[in-house]
Amino acid sequence: MMVLTRDLPVRLGTLVFLALLALAGSARAEGTHRIFVSNEKGDALSVLSAKDYSLVADVKMPHRPRGMMFSPDHKRLYVACGGSNLIAVIDVASLKIIDRIPNIPDPETFDLDAAGTHLYVSNEDDAELTVLDLATKQVVGRYKVGLEPEGVLLNHDGSVVYVASEGSNLVHAIALPSGKRTDIPTGTRPRRLALTPDGKQLWVSTELAAQVDVIDTATNRVTDKIDFLPSGMRRADVSPVGLVMDRAGKTAYVTLGRADNVAVVDVASHKVETYLLVGRRPWGITFDRDQKRLFVANGGSDDISIIDVAAHKVLKSVLVGHYPYGIAIDE
Fold it and tell me: In which element (H, E) is residue 12 found?
């Protein structure tokens, strides 16, 4: 079911035009070389230097900061603060909260369209996906989804938004602008999403199934499952959540939660290549700009792990705040 409060700018041609306009008119400036870590239980962002990983600042936040994304020009950082029912807007240069967008029920994660004008936000307690117009700070669309939605991902041309509903064991494919919803059954508690560069496969981590499900986006059906079991671990300990794929579509990396490892997966064969031992309960994961390093948020040990991608080696761990959830890097 879909309820629209006004027309959404989601026609493909409009999206492409706006994306090109944004790229032409607001080219991304040199980054601040800072790493932002949202600390879910510490109500703060830890800001580190991307050069030596030293602490630059602790930014006090509204309650329960989790998902984060930069604006296309990296001048702003949007942070979902679920305990305060708002999206906080951080000025990246000054590290100040410059805006609060209220009345967003329990936001957890979100995706941002290519033009940087609309956020697609999962509302965990309301079983909804809401669309937020950043210019007006108004919700302009509401889509009913399953229970406890978390992961949100727009496809490459902005014509479909995918939502993972943990409590219903479903991924929803919502066509834009029609709002037609296709429900895709998955393993238990689907969490995060990643698309292959060609858009033909959608990968979804299924936390309590200890798997990643691979969905064919043409048929909206699960066509394969990737199992994880690091040496010495019980299957009950394996709880995959965080999921990223490199730009070449060659290798994917999956955080395994209570198993304290990151799985390295060959995308073409769907085979696990190796496991990398990190901190306790790894959750969020992201690449640096040139994809030479991976950064992993370890909620159980209050630190992040830094991985050399080419060597498949954990270089070091850095203490941050309490219960780190997500990582965003401005380079």
Answer: helix 12-25
DSSP notation for 27-76 = PPPPP--EEEEEETTTTEEEEEETTT--EEEEEE-SS-EEEEEE-TTSSE
Give per-residue pLDDT as tens, 144-170: 999 999 999 999 999 999 999 999 999
Query: What's the pLDDT score for residue 80?
Result: 97
The candidate with the shortest Cα–Cα distance to 244, out of 293, 314, 187, is 293
Residue with tokens 């629209």: 4
Long-range pairs for 82-90 at CB < 8 Å and ≥24 separation? 82/106, 82/107, 82/108, 82/124, 83/43, 86/62, 87/119, 87/121, 87/132, 88/61, 88/62, 90/36, 90/45, 90/59
CA 191 to chain CA centroid, nearest Å: 10
DSSP string, 297-321: EETTTTEEEEEETTTTEEEEEEE-S
**CATH number for the domain formed by residue range(s) 2-24+32-330:** 2.130.10.10
- Every domain of the chain and the residues it spans: 2-24+32-330
Q: What length does the chain have? A: 331
Backbone angles phi, psi at 225, to 5 degrees: -130, 135
Query: For residue 204, which of 187, 181, 218 has the smallest C-alpha distance?
Result: 187
d(CA 199, CA 206): 20
CA distance 86 to 84: 6
- Contact criterion met (CB below 8 Å) for 249 and 242: no
Nearest-5° Cα angle at 77, 74 to 64: 160
205-258: pLDDT as tens digits: 999 999 999 999 999 999 999 999 999 999 999 999 999 999 999 999 999 999
Dump pLDDT digits (tens) for 9-57.
444 444 443 444 444 444 555 789 999 999 999 999 999 999 999 999 9
